[in-house]
Write a structure and sequence with these properties.
The chain is mainly alpha-helical. The protein is built from 10 helices and 2 strands. The protein folds into 2 domains: 84 residues, EF-hand (Recoverin, domain 1); 85 residues, EF-hand (Recoverin, domain 1, Orthogonal Bundle). α4 packs across α6. 30% of the residues are buried.
Length: 186
């Protein structure tokens, strides 16, 4: 993805890449870059800083586990930090992407081991992380346990009953069920 180091300005090459791979125009990209550099002067968003940012939105819950999964999905080159390109590509998909794009991104997050399928343990792990982030007292937190929720999701989506969800099963299941889509996608 490229390391931005302490550059104050985005290179022409990076600008062109972001304009062609996001829905943002040059002025919007410059605004995002300015904010990113204020928060991450060295051009690197670390896991700790990422968790701190999430805690502002979920002060009553434990966001750390969920943040680990989101961070892993944002950090596409797996170098341990999120650079501006990775950041903006992820923001673009999660805020402006089509339902299918958002679900493909969510699938990568749920596929914890990166093997191309989601198993029941991975689904339970992410659902539990979402529950933890919402906090025990949250009105938004469902009454069922993470295990029960994961089993119900699998019952609806795992068409061939092989104990794994392919990206196709995941997308189809979410696109046919608004409640699932709202819960599982960003």
């Amino acid at each position: 993805m490229g390391c931005f180091g302490s550059k104050d300005k985005l290179s022409r090459e990076d600008m062109e890449f972001l304009k062609s791979h996001t829905r943002y125009d040059e002025a919007t990209i410059k605004e995002w870059y300015k904010g990113f550099k204020q928060d991450c002067p060295n051009g690197k968003l670390t896991p700790t800083k990422f968790v701190d940012m999430y805690k502002m939105f979920f002060p009553n819950g434990n966001a750390e586990e969920f943040c680990d999964h989101v961070f892993r999905t944002f950090d596409m080159d797996k170098n341990g930090y999120i650079d501006f390109k990775e950041f903006l590509l992820a923001i673009d998909v999660t805020s402006s992407g089509s339902p299918e794009e958002k679900l493909k991104w969510a699938f990568r997050m749920y596929d914890v081991d990166g093997n191309g399928v989601i198993d029941i343990e991975e689904m339970t792990k992410i659902v539990q992380a979402i529950y933890d982030m919402l906090g025990a007292c949250s009105a938004n937190r469902p009454a069922d346990s993470a295990e029960e929720r994961a089993k119900n999701i699998f019952a609806k989506m795992d068409e061939n009953n092989d104990g794994q969800l392919t990206q196709e099963e995941f997308l189809k299941g979410c696109l046919q069920d608004d409640e699932l889509s709202r819960m599982l996608a960003p």
